[in-house]
Backbone:
């Protein structure tokens, strides 16, 4: 059976955030950061509006900017300086996007193993004879199982 990753599904459009676009007022309301602060952060290069091709000058921001503004605000609320908040948020976002990309590539669907629904994480060995499966237990630990190819039941 051919396996597809979530990234391949619907030409990579499933769970895409590309069309999540927000005006500066919306970002301000969603993050509790004033439009004045957002403009200041933009002037410092911490955030960047989307490029507009329609000649309109109103600021539009993507989902990534929403996440970044939310992270910076959280760090500021925890007592970090603006520069430290931006640095920490950038590092956390880079890690999160790396994890997201990894999981999109590694995920090959679900399987039932010993009565449990588990994630199929693909081949475990270079010879493609075994597959790695994982699930979270009731106490939120990760449990792994290696089974022969076609070993799901």
Residues:
């Amino acid at each position: 059976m051919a396996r597809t990753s979530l990234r391949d599904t619907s030409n990579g459009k499933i769970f895409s955030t590309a069309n999540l676009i927000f005006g500066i007022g919306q970002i301000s309301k969603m993050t509790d950061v004033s439009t004045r602060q957002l403009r200041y952060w933009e002037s410092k290069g911490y955030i960047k509006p989307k490029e507009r091709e329609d000649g309109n000058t109103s600021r539009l921001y993507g989902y990534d900017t929403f996440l970044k503004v939310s992270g910076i605000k959280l760090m500021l609320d925890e007592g970090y300086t603006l520069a430290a908040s931006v640095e920490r948020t950038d590092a956390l976002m880079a890690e999160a996007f790396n994890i997201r990309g990894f999981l999109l590539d590694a995920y090959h669907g679900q399987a039932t193993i010993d009565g449990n629904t588990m994630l199929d994480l693909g081949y475990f060995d270079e010879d493609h004879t075994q597959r790695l499966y994982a699930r979270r237990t009731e106490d939120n630990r990760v449990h792994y199982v290696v089974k022969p190819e076609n070993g799901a039941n």
Remarks:
- The chain has a mean pLDDT of 88.
- DSSP finds four helices and six strands in the chain.
- Residues 107-148 form one domain.
- The radius of gyration is 21 Å.
